[in-house]
Amino acid sequence: MDELLTWLKAQHNGLRTYKDFQQRVLNLAGSDREHVALYQILALLVGRFIDSYEEHPLTGDVADQAFDHLIEITEKATASLGAAPADQLATLNAIAAADLG
């Protein structure tokens, strides 16, 4: 997850990054079964954003805000991996309720 966060912070805020992010978290879901729910929820979050903007160009403001929010969410997700189960669940719920757009 740290590697994912490092990769994300080095990316551009375009739609291609969201598609790559989605693929990366789905790959992690296949290899890190202990945290599969987290990865699946991150993939769903990004998927909703991709679906919203697939046919429409992103404005600079939307792109910047969404990208910053995705980084923030990914930081919280990364920090939650070693947390107590109740804290992990709270993080999962927060991510499930989040919206990038």
List its traits.
101 residues; mainly alpha; 5 helices
Describe what is shown at a glance.
With 101 residues, the chain is mostly helical. The protein has helices at residues 2-9, 15-31, 36-53, 60-80, 85-97.
What's the order of the H and E elements?
A: HHHHH
Number of helices: 5
Q: Determine the mean pLDDT.
A: 94
How helix-rich are the residues, as a percent range? Answer: over 70%
Kindly estimate the percentage of residues that lie in beta strands according to DSSP. Answer: under 5%
The Rg value, from CA coordinates, equals 13 Å
State the low-pLDDT regions, or none: none
| Terminal CA distance | 23 Å
Largest sheet, in brief, is: none
Shape: globular
Number of E strands: 0
Structural class: mainly alpha
Description:
The chain is mainly α. Helix content is 76%, strand content 0%. The protein is built from five helices and no strands. Helix 2 runs antiparallel to helix 3. The longest helix has 21 residues, at 60-80. The chain is globular. The two termini are 23 Å apart. The model has no long low-confidence stretch (mean pLDDT 94).
